[in-house]
Amino acid sequence: MTVPTILVIDDDVQVCETIASLLARLRYACETAHSLEQGLAILETAPVDVVFLDVRLPDGNGIDALPRIRQAPSHPEVIILTGEGDPDGAELAIQGGVWDYLVKPTPIKQTTLTLARALQYRAEKLSKGGGGTVALDLDGVVGISPSMRQCFDLVANAATTEANVLVTGETGTGKELLARTIHRNSPRRNGPFVVVDCAALTESLVESTLFGHKRGAFTGAQQDRDGLVKLADGGTLFLDEVGEMPLAIQRAFLRILQERSFRPVGGTQKIRSDFRLISATNRDLDAMVERGEFRKDLLFRLNTVHVELPPLRTRPEDLKPLAIFHMNRLAEQYGVPAKGFATDFFQQLAQYDWPGNVREFFNVLERSFVISGLEGVLYAMHLPQDVRIKITRASLARSPQTADHEEASVKLHDVTEGTSVPLPPLKSFKRLMEKRYLELLIAQTEGSLQEMLDISGLSRSHFYALLKKNNMTL
């Protein structure tokens, strides 16, 4: 029987020694590291089953490193062991896939029990072949960032089950593409993939569209017609923009999910349909439930497995592989040699927030492809002018000089006295002031993390999130 290996990443030597002593009594192998760099190096070279991870480390935040740790060759389970309880940090850690979040000093009994459960879970997962990366057909889905890899893990898990899946994300992130990927990797891959555009459904025709109708059921019904639910029999029914589904039909659809049967308009007999359900939306369904715009019981049915696609602005690592993929596809489509990229091309792309996400990104790439003509290398000059202007404006808005200038032009005293001053949009003003506050905070404390947290009243995870949002580092 293989002895489990546990890695402790903590800069507190006493903590490492205490856990190492405990593991020795349990007859487990133990490795220790006092920094993230050391821990990651061990993970790259040695098989590890479970990682005890501190949050506050000399060379970074443990929670920020979670994706890299969980993507290590041995795909270890992670238990957070931190000296400071932080609800925001715990939420981020759980979202990152950790097994548990323990606050030091943790009783030996609780530590031992948590470790035993994590090891048992890992053993069961490995016995079912789930310990490594599952081979997926990711045709058309591109991403190397940690957030996308987490999505791929969820896709791999969802594809092997019949569970309902809810895919959320901003417009243009590729929700339908991901839904098709789940279908293509599922046992239903040879069945139909039927798309229901909930935003295009009208209340007068929604029942006929979904459930079909019998001849003579209404004016114009010249013959029997199967609805989309029946057409999905044996395959996958994809509800696109499910948040737009009228309330009037949500109750009827809930009954279909429970019984997998329905009655066509004008029909007297119920018809069964064996389909797998995947839904997608860019709306906040929880908020809609609170407002009475979406049924809570229906949301429970839809949201068995939740896959949230990250916006493109949060995964800059994916810009280059996405660009290469789409440009190669365009070159094949137009029958021309593949084009290369100058360094300044990617530098410009990274300066933009891409509010339209991958859809907008691909559109800009195609326009650049056309603008470049027969040239074999794409430069920043080949980007469409309107995009270059947006990128330049965004870049200037982020620069400290611009922030100082705009701060100087908007004096709160002048505003209260009624003086006419040029006011930027509120959103821009908030962003500029937030970044300026962080700059002053870092300067005043000379980069002391604890002082900055004490002064600002921010949690550590919230502070790091603000740094990332404003493209700042300590």
Describe this entry's structure for a reader.
The chain is α/β, with parallel strands linked by helices and 474 residues long. Helices cover 47% and strands 14% of the residues. The chain has 21 helices and 18 strands. The strands form six sheets. Strands 2-1-3-6-7 form a five-stranded parallel sheet, with helices on both faces. Helix 13 (319-334) packs across helix 15 (357-372). The longest helix has 20 residues, at 108-127. It is globular and about 80 Å long.
Topology summary:
Layout: E1 5-9, H1 13-25, E2 29-33, H2 36-45, E3 50-53, E4 56-57, E5 60-61, H3 66-70, E6 77-82, H4 87-95, E7 100-103, H5 108-127, H6 146-159, E8 165-168, H7 175-184, E9 193-197, H8 206-211, E10 212-213, E11 225-226, H9 228-231, E12 236-240, H10 247-259, E13 261-262, E14 271-272, E15 276-281, H11 285-290, H12 296-302, E16 305-308, H13 319-334, E17 340-341, H14 343-349, H15 357-372, E18 377-378, H16 385-398, H17 400-409, H18 412-416, H19 426-445, H20 449-456, H21 460-469
Parallel strand pairs: 1-2, 1-3, 3-6, 6-7, 8-15, 8-16, 9-12, 12-15, 17-18
Antiparallel strand pairs: 4-5, 10-11, 13-14
Helix pairs in contact: 6-7, 13-15, 17-19
